[in-house]
């Protein structure tokens, strides 16, 4: 008998064709499929003609379900965990279950695929080397302001999830916390018919969205450029600057810039400008 596994299976965030071949194979082969909403996931499974036995695992019963699922694994059954859309555990249930199953000594294996914020970040044009995923902001305005204020000086790209009901309010709260000129990108309805990815200052984004109610519909990822995180393509790295300064002690500025340009590969004019500045 093969080892029982809890698979964490990512499902599409709109376009059903994004369900990977491996995800289909795993969902078809496991003994049970643990789903956040069994009716919703049932529709996905029937689209792919997969007949699985379903268990419901959602925010309100996850902790109680752990024991049952561990017992199933103990009897040699493999289980797939899915959420309504995207990757389970990412602003979705599953954390307690995965921890409990790992602590009980069973194998947990991911079947990666769609994740709304990764898809949005990859297409946003915002710096993606360092980012902070915040997920949903608190619903209450006081708590929301507190979270946003604490992020105001953060230099990383900030990534939020938002729903149709609160998108304008949240953008306004971001404008208050980060300033109206902060650049942000709204990624709406990714992989679906009305997919829209639009970037502008927070003030302009709010104007644009308020002028067109259609832009307020659907599911959103909001990505905000980090504080003072404009890409400085002209920036000179500290080692090159050190070489320039050493040379400038011995040589006239133009000569120092020329020699430093040869050593470092930076443009002579850019180095000369740096010396003069
Ligand atoms: N687990 C999911 C994932 O991996 O992205 C996220 C689940 S969370 C409950 C749902 C939120 O994800 C939505 O409110 C929205 O902010 C974002 N989202 C999901 N699908 C999306 C899509 N197609 N386009 C834009 N945002 C989406």
TrEMBL record:
It is found in: Cytoplasm. Catalyzes the 2'-O-methylation of the ribose of cytidine 1402 (C1402) in 16S rRNA. Gene3D superfamilies: Cobalt-precorrin-4 Transmethylase, Domain 1, Methyltransferase, Cobalt-precorrin-4 Transmethylase, Domain 2. This is Ribosomal RNA small subunit methyltransferase I. Keywords: Cytoplasm, Methyltransferase, rRNA processing, S-adenosyl-L-methionine, Transferase. The gene is rsmI. Residues 234-275 form the RsmI HTH domain. It comes from the Bacteria. Residues 6-205 form the Tetrapyrrole methylase domain. Belongs to the methyltransferase superfamily. RsmI family. It is an enzyme of class 2 (transferase). SUPFAM superfamilies: Tetrapyrrole methylase. It catalyses: cytidine(1402) in 16S rRNA + S-adenosyl-L-methionine = 2'-O-methylcytidine(1402) in 16S rRNA + S-adenosyl-L-homocysteine + H(+). Its EC number is 2.1.1.198. InterPro entries: 4pyrrol_Mease (IPR000878), 4pyrrol_Methylase_sf (IPR035996), 4pyrrole_Mease_sub1 (IPR014777), 4pyrrole_Mease_sub2 (IPR014776), rRNA_ssu_MeTfrase_I (IPR008189), RsmI_HTH (IPR053910), SAM_MeTrfase_RsmI_CS (IPR018063).
